[in-house]
TrEMBL record:
One Gene Ontology cellular component: cytoplasm
Record-annotated Acyl-CoA dehydrogenase/oxidase C-terminal domain positions: 234-381
Record protein name field: Putative acyl-CoA dehydrogenase
Cofactor(s), by name: FAD
This protein's record includes keyword Aminoacyl-tRNA synthetase: no
Organism: Steroidobacter agaridevorans
């Protein structure tokens, strides 16, 4: 790690711990994430100290994945940290994708305002289960896009769309292959809000750190100019892979920071709370849980570093990011669960962020692909590699 990145990470950590953490009790935090007012206030402070969008350099280039990890883990030390520093999902993944594949005009219109932290973005891919729409299986996509003259006309429904309320940029995935009877996914860039995209409801979920929550949407005759197609028609699934591998890893980075903080809080509690004549930390049942946390935190850190190295080496890292996502999500859940258990009643209250971290990390085992889907994908790779080796 260079001195430059080390100093940047230290500035980010100082900002999150000293400036952001006190906002965790701000009443502008809700079940559907912090308000736009609160986000704007925090981002103004991040801009003042030079830690807004720290993973992207002034020339628009991204840090390496290893350097990104060094920074994003620090932003995750508070549930508000990624939003304050503009390293949150889905914005961080959307910035990465647009930086790689958007045209110069598309970058100017859609990417640069997000990088500057002026607007948030949303990624509209998942569809309702009751519609038999795309979820873990994107080939089930029901949303359609039909070319009429110079415009694409999009119709369908989307769900669990993180951060849609209050977003200024949307990336919409739709099937442009209806004429052939095939699912040929494409991506479209849209300015938000748009009257053709209506929020049916904001879902009630166990997590609460994402601004705008998660929305169920109806898209009716959304008209998108040709020049707002991202890439070429039918490239949607390929473009999604460009985004998903690093985005999965970024989730791991941020939630590692959150669990590091939860472990700090649980350890401090165990070192001051007494029961049965001694400190909790001196009871083997408590001390060993915190020791297991230390071991797991280090293993998570090493796995993130390994996967980041693979991506930095030029590999798409699809299998590596799947393995990392499964291992990290499941391990961080165990860490958060132990923190709750060590703290007892205080651990399930909102007196600290430990209960929130527990809820957020539980949700992480589902989004960006449930554990079971990633294992199924890895099993298919094992079979494919075995058959190739045997032939």
């Amino acid at each position: 790690m260079s001195i430059e990145i080390e100093q940047l990470a230290e500035r980010v950590e100082k900002f999150v711990r000293e400036i952001v953490v006190p906002y965790e009790r701000d009443p502008r935090n809700s079940a559907h994430g912090p308000s736009q007012e609160l986000i704007g206030e925090l981002r103004a402070k991040a801009r003042q100290v030079g830690v807004l969008t720290p993973h992207i350099r002034p020339d628009g280039s991204h840090l390496t994945q290893r350097d990104t990890a060094t920074v994003l883990i620090r932003t995750g030390l508070s549930p508000l940290g990624p939003l304050a520093c503009n390293t949150n999902a889905p914005d961080e993944g959307n910035m990465y994708l647009l930086g790689k594949v958007a045209s110069p005009a598309q970058k100017l219109q859609f990417l640069e305002p997000v990088v500057r932290g002026e607007v948030r973005s949303a990624f509209l891919m998942t569809e309702p289960a009751e519609d038999q729409g795309a979820g873990s299986d994107p080939s089930m996509m029901q949303t359609t896009a039909v070319l009429e003259g110079d415009d694409w006309i999009i119709n369908g429904r989307k769900t669990f769309i993180t951060g849609f309320q209050g977003a200024g940029v949307g990336i919409v995935m739709a099937n442009t292959g209806t004429a052939t009877g095939k699912v040929e996914a494409s991506m479209f860039l849209v300015e938000l809000p748009n009257p053709s995209i209506r929020v049916e409801r904001v879902l009630e979920t166990i997590d609460s750190s994402f601004a705008g929550g998660h929305s169920l949407l109806r898209i009716e005759n959304l008209r998108v100019p040709r020049e707002q197609l991202l890439g070429e028609p039918g490239q949607g699934f390929a473009l999604a892979q460009i985004r998903l591998s690093p985005a999965r890893l970024s989730h791991c980075m941020r939630w590692l920071g959150a669990c590091q903080r939860a472990h700090e809080i649980a350890s401090a509690y165990a070192c001051r709370r007494r029961a049965f004549g001694k400190l909790l930390i001196e009871h083997e049942g408590v001390g060993f849980q915190l020791a297991d946390n230390l071991i797991d935190l280090k293993q998570v850190e090493l796995m993130i570093d390994w996967c980041a190295g693979v991506l930095d080496g030029g590999s798409p890292g699809i299998s590596e990011s799947s393995m990392t996502k499964v291992a990290v999500a499941d391990t961080l859940f165990r860490i958060a669960d132990r923190c709750v258990q060590v703290m007892g009643g205080t651990g399930v209250s909102n007196d600290t962020i430990v209960a929130q971290v527990f809820r957020e990390v539980r949700a992480f085992r589902i989004y960006d692909g449930p554990t079971e889907v990633h294992k199924w994908s890895l099993a298919k790779k094992i079979k494919r590699d075995h058959l190739q080796a045997a032939s």
